[in-house]
Amino acid sequence: MTRRRISSALWQFGDAPATTVLAPFGGGSAYSVADWLPHVADSAIIVQYPGRGPRAGEAHATSLGELAHEVAIELATHTTGPLTLVGHSVGALLCHEITRELEDRGRRVAQLVVSAARPAHLSLLREEQVLAMDRAAWLSALVGNGFGTPELMANQLAVDMALDALRADYLLLARHLRAGGAVRAPLLAIGSSDDPWLDEDHLTAWGELTTGPFATAVMPGDHFYYRNDPVAFGKAVRAGCAARPGPTDVPPAVRRTPPPHTAPGDLEFAATKLETT
To answer: For 119-145, what is the mean pLDDT?
Structure first.
């Protein structure tokens, strides 16, 4: 599959004009979700996070809202027409904020798909607790994110770079405690049957963050369920909220106020210390 750099934050994978935007999970780069193609779309624009891949020389993002602002400006500059945004885990929260930024600029988002993610106000991570995680905990998290291949673990430099990216993305989540606002785009929230950090109530809570059509879907598998059946994942993304009628043109003035953040206790964080992001 061909790929080309559009800007520092955006890479296109595939030859056809792309109207689908993909955002990777925590610790990932643009290449991490390239295998979603051609299932979710024939070609796509993939967000490249700073501090890894071709942007390894840049500092990691420290604010999910600021990263969304950067990406939204790039998308507004380099794309035309309605877009479909798809993000997994931390990428899901990023896509929600990008959608809000695009809508505030007058761009229509045809579909927003959030995968394997709690809404920001239900996050369990805390900045001080993330900073307190030791190397053993980070190595376990690295394995939990699917990066712990024998080849990687044998390369100390590669391990250190991967841990650095993962830590930065945990901090993004820990600092993002409330969505910037509700969106108007149709929103599909996908989860899985065996994800220990997500249940159907968390998926349903995403409905508070859109004034447009809303639907949920649960697929078999764990946090990275799409790896088991990428074809089914692609069909779910392409179908979106098509079967769920609802308002599609709600002015910004009547947007819902995002719910306040719900603070977890220490036991809740202990259960999520190795949470994949």
So the answer is: 85
Structure tokens at 49: 């996070």
Strands 10-13 and 3-5: antiparallel
> The whole model's pTM is what?
0.85
- Is the four-CA dihedral 175, 177, 178, 179 of positive or negative sign? positive
Nearest C-alpha neighbor of 40 from the set 85, 7, 104: 85
Q: Give yes or no for a contact between 57 and 83, defined as CB atoms under 8 angstroms apart.
A: no
Residue 130 lies in a domain: no
Of 169, 105, 159, 170, give the one whose Cα is nearest residue 136: 159
Question: Which residues are CB-contacts of 186 (< 8 A; sequence separation ≥ 6)?
Answer: 110, 111, 112, 210, 212, 213, 214, 215, 240, 241, 244, 246, 248
Burial of residue 11 (CB within 10 Å: 0-12, 13-18, 19+) is buried
Secondary structure letter of residue 145 according to DSSP: T
Instruction: Assess if residue 157 is contained within a domain.
Output: no
Residue that the structure tokens 């891949």 belong to: 53
Comparing CA positions, the residue from 157, 155, 158, 163 lying closest to residue 136 is 163
Q: Please state, rounded to an integer, the average pLDDT across all residues of the chain.
A: 85
Total structural domains within the chain: 1
CATH number at residue 81: 3.40.50.1820
Q: How high is the pLDDT of residue 269?
A: 28
Q: Is the pLDDT of residue 74 over 90?
A: yes
Q: Is residue 265 part of a domain?
A: no
Which tops the pLDDT comparison, 121 or 154?
A: 121
Read off the pLDDT of residues 176-210 as tens digits, 9 standing for 90 and up. 989 989 999 999 999 999 998 899 999 999 999 99
Domain that holds residue 28: 3-124+177-257
Examine residue 87 and state whether it is found in any structural domain, yes or no.
yes
